[in-house]
């Protein structure tokens, strides 16, 4: 006899808000994952892992980051790698999305409270069509990951036994679509062995971009043939993503063109692939085809900026999001032109959206600045390297300059907490710690002060 699946609404005595449920849910999954990774069967023979390192690895997987203290390809066994892959899938799609999958399979009704949590998890402004969106998310994810896994398997079957190529194809399809950045090639190499490989570059970049633009945009694009219209959100996401990738590739191509440690040693085609991939991966993917430690400092700092912006809302990626960056940029342009409204694609944005974008940006800067300063006191490493690692953790990117494996215990805790905050979102975490209050019934008189 099948056991009934409990509903979130049956735990009303907990009196938890949707943001608090998300925080607790992610924390529980991380702890379960850490315990599984501590099992002897999760490591290669003769190796063990401390509780802190297990929690760090589980946090990195669930928060789809990719920063690692132990090399995934050599330290963990196949069982451990499968655990990491499952944690990535749950973390990328969201545990509430996975819970909804089981509810749909068992034909259980989704309660109002569960819909509220799904609305918070998917960063939606209303509950309308939320279950339909979740169903689409699951279908899109499985189709894209499955197709990419087949293509990568075929490509890597030329380099390794077919069974191993199948596992590599599946693992990297899940990892890259969820913008996690974990890889199995060993010795922290990531995809540096395929810098000029067109198949690996195209498939992986497609996975990164499709996972990073968000499920709402994918749904809008698929339904475009019916309505011949795209929402403002989709237009902003596609435009900003294309602009960031194009500008990023051009800047990195110019900065690294003569650098023999990166693009300088490649032919023209390799230079183009290398610059383009390194521009795409700060969308919070974490894979790299160039040695990041060999990049010039200007390139490293530029990648920090790209990582800070990150992916788009409702996606598997992190960062302040492309829409937030676009709104902030629009506010600057509107101010310089002496206009009161921010207008994008002939739509005026409400003041609430501008305040939310400003709040997210300021909180993100405060978090990154604070963690970087703390790491500067606990770790004896260059400041730019620590800033790079902290931004990578906050934006759930996973790109690294080799700092993470050398972190002290305190440093690992700081980076793990930063990954956790970055995956949930600074606003969601703030609401979970101190739920937002209702609107006041009165307004204070307007005051004037000098700015600038």
UniProtKB/TrEMBL annotation:
It comes from the Bacteria. It is a multi-pass membrane protein. One of its GO terms (cellular component) is plasma membrane. The keyword tRNA processing does not apply. Its main location: membrane. The chain crosses the membrane at residues 20-39, 51-70, 82-106, 137-158, 199-224, 236-255, 301-334, 354-375, 413-433. Keywords: Cell membrane, Ion transport, Membrane, Potassium, Potassium transport, Transmembrane, Transmembrane helix, Transport. Pfam families: TrkH. GO terms for molecular function: potassium:chloride symporter activity. It is found in: Cell membrane. NCBIfam families: 2a38. This is ATP synthase subunit J. It comes from Paenibacillus stellifer. The lineage of its organism: Bacteria, Bacillati, Bacillota, Bacilli, Bacillales.
């Amino acid at each position: 006899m099948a056991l009934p699946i409990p509903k979130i609404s049956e735990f009303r005595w907990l009196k938890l808000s949707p943001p608090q449920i998300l925080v607790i849910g992610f924390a529980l999954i991380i702890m379960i994952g850490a315990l599984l990774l501590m099992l002897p069967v999760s490591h290669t023979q003769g190796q063990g892992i401390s509780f802190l390192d297990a929690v760090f690895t589980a946090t990195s997987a669930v928060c789809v980051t990719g920063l690692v203290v132990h090399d995934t390809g050599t330290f963990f066994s196949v069982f451990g790698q499968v655990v990491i892959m499952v944690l990535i899938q749950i973390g990328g799609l969201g545990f509430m999305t996975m819970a909804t999958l089981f509810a749909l399979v068992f034909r259980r009704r989704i309660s109002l409270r569960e819909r509220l949590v799904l609305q918070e998890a998917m960063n939606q402004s209303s509950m309308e069509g939320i279950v339909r969106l979740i169903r689409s998310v699951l279908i899109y994810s499985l189709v894209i990951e499955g197709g990419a896994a087949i293509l990568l398997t075929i490509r890597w079957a030329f380099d390794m036994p077919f069974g191993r190529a199948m596992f590599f194809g599946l693992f990297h399809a899940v990892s890259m679509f969820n913008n996690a950045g974990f890889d199995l090639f060993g010795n922290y190499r990531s995809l540096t062995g395929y810098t000029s490989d067109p198949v690996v570059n195209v498939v992986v970049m497609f996975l990164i971009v499709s996972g990073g633009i968000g499920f709402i945009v994918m749904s809008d694009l698929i339904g475009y043939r019916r309505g011949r219209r795209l929402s403002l959100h989709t237009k902003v996401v596609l435009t900003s993503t294309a602009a960031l990738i194009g500008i990023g590739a051009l800047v990195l191509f110019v900065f690294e063109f003569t650098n023999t440690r990166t693009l300088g040693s490649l032919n023209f085609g390799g230079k183009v692939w290398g610059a383009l991939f390194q521009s795409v991966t700060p969308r919070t993917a974490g894979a790299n085809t160039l040695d990041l430690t060999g990049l010039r400092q200007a390139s490293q700092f530029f990648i920090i900026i790209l990582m800070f912006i990150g992916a788009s809302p409702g996606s598997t990626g992190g960062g302040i999001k492309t829409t937030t960056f676009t709104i902030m940029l629009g506010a600057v342009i509107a101010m310089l032109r002496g206009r009161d409204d921010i207008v994008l694609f002939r739509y005026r944005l409400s003041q609430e959206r501008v305040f939310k974008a400003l709040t997210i940006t300021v909180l993100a800067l405060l978090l990154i600045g604070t963690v970087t300063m703390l790491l500067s006191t606990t770790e004896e490493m260059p400041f730019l390297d620590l800033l790079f690692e902290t931004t990578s953790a906050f934006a759930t990117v996973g790109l690294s300059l080799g700092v993470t494996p050398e972190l002290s215990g305190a440093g690992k805790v700081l980076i793990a907490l930063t990954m956790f905050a970055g995956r949930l979102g600074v606003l969601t975490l703030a609401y979970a710690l101190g739920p937002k209050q209702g609107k006041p019934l009165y307004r204070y008189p307007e005051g004037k002060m000098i700015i600038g």
